[in-house]
């Protein structure tokens, strides 16, 4: 959209700005002896430049909105667009965008909902969707591409305190939602994400993308809601308990077992000692990694983090200061570990650290998962790797080592992703040796201890 009109307008603004600068220079030369005239002239020039800047900013936003509207019309957008149109709903561009949405629905004979173009057609599709929402116990809502609530069930209305037609950005942070919708669209499948509330707290959600200009469906599983309610402190919900873990017996094939790669950092001066200050998890099933089903948490231990601990894992006092305490984040950690086998280098030490912090937080029964130590597996496959560091294991099994920057996105999550990738490499080696069940893998590692701490420096 930034064609001839854009160039003409920008040229005019540039000429006006240059004229004001030239006028300011002339004033400094002609009125240097008259302080009053000098000050008044410069003030006028300054106000003129400020007005030019204001006009430039408004026009830039206007033309940017035209670009976004053009993308919506052409259907070539590659990013989810939840940013509101400038001028609010009463602005001319916002009204034009609304008219486009209505016209598109009318052309296809869809009715008002994003799913109305399906095989049911028109009003029947909307009635079917409303019936499904009413029958669903979990909070579920349908958003349009602009982030407005098109339909929702009573559970979602109570949870988010929104109604049909409301802007979801008044309840949830748009940046979190936009990133989740991007992942759902890019992967072509629903994704799990943690969405932050505007006021306080977080919610675990499942997001399914409905396609370009069609919006998304958000579902808030009951267990995820329970954890979010505990974190927010805003409301108390009566929710069902997490279901009992399914059997993960020795005869279960490794290729079908649910694993969770776990990385834990502690604030002790010695490895594996002190309170837990960071947790990273990545879910995998057999050799398939699900990087979007992950958890990254920093935890405030109250006391300063010793320099020795920071040197091990790169996480210092300033990074965790102001984060939530362990008791507040434990439900999210428990949910990430639920009904999985925890894997990692020195995984038993990681689980012991979680158990110790849970006990210190007054959590009576942390219900930790079974574990399978990657260091012990590597040693069983190759005795020369006994006591090997994470970097040595990465080199031996051809696994890329992620940067250990200590930053939230590259620390816990990067380390957990490395553990997941190492687990996949080890499972591949086990399969080559004919070891295909959990019982066979445990028999292989019988008597082999964990030789590498999860926080051992490379």
From TrEMBL:
PROSITE patterns: PAS. One of its GO terms (biological process) is DNA metabolic process. The chain crosses the membrane at residues 6-25, 37-56. The keyword Metal-binding does not apply. One of its GO terms (molecular function) is exonuclease activity. Keywords: Membrane, Transmembrane, Transmembrane helix. Residues 125-175 form the PAS domain. InterPro entries: PAS, PAS-like_dom_sf, Ribonucl_H, RNaseH-like_sf, RNaseH_sf. The keyword Ubl conjugation does not apply. This is DNA polymerase-3 subunit epsilon. It comes from Azospirillum oryzae.
């Amino acid at each position: 959209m930034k064609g001839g009109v854009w160039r003409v307008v920008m040229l005019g603004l540039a000429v006006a700005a240059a004229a004001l600068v030239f006028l300011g220079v002339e004033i400094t030369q002609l009125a240097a002896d008259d302080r009053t005239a000098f000050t008044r002239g410069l003030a006028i020039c300054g106000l003129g430049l400020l007005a030019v800047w204001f006009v430039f900013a408004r026009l830039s936003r206007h033309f940017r909105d035209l670009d976004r509207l053009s993308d919506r019309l052409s259907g070539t957008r590659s990013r989810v667009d939840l940013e509101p149109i400038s001028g609010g709903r009463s602005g001319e561009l916002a009204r034009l965008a609304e008219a486009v949405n209505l016209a598109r629905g009318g052309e296809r004979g869809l009715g008002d909902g994003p799913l109305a173009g399906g095989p049911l057609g028109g009003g029947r599709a909307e009635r079917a969707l409303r019936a499904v929402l009413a029958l669903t116990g979990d909070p579920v809502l349908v958003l349009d591409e602009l982030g407005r609530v098109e339909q929702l069930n009573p559970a979602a209305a109570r949870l988010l305190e929104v109604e049909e037609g409301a802007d979801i950005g008044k309840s949830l942070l748009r940046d979190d939602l936009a990133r989740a919708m991007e992942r759902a669209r890019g992967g072509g499948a629903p994704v799990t994400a943690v969405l932050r509330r505007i006021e306080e707290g977080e919610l675990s959600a499942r997001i399914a993308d409905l396609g370009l200009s069609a919006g998304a469906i958000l579902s808030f599983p009951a267990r995820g809601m329970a954890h979010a309610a505990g974190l927010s402190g805003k409301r108390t919900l009566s929710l069902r308990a997490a279901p009992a873990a399914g059997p993960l017996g020795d005869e279960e094939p490794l290729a079908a077992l649910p694993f969770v790669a776990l990385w834990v950092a502690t604030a002790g001066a010695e490895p594996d000692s002190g309170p837990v200050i960071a947790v990273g998890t990545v879910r995998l099933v057999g050799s398939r990694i699900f990087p979007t089903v992950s958890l990254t948490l920093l935890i405030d231990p109250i006391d300063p983090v010793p320099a020795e601990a920071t040197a091990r894992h790169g996480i210092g006092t300033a990074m965790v200061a102001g984060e939530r305490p362990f008791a507040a984040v434990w439900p999210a950690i428990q949910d990430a570990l639920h009904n999985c086998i925890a894997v990692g280098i020195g995984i038993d030490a990681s689980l012991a650290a979680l158990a110790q912090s849970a006990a210190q937080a007054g959590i009576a029964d942390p219900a930790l998962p079974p574990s399978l130590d990657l260091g012990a597996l590597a040693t069983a496959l190759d005795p020369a790797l006994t006591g090997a560091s994470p970097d040595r294991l990465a080199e031996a099994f051809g696994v890329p080592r992620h940067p250990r920057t200590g930053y939230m996105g590259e620390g816990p999550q990067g380390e957990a992703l490395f553990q997941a990738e190492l687990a996949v490499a080890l499972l591949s080696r086990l399969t080559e040796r004919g070891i295909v069940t959990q019982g066979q893998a445990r028999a292989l590692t019988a008597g082999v201890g964990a030789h590498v701490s999860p926080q051992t420096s490379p």
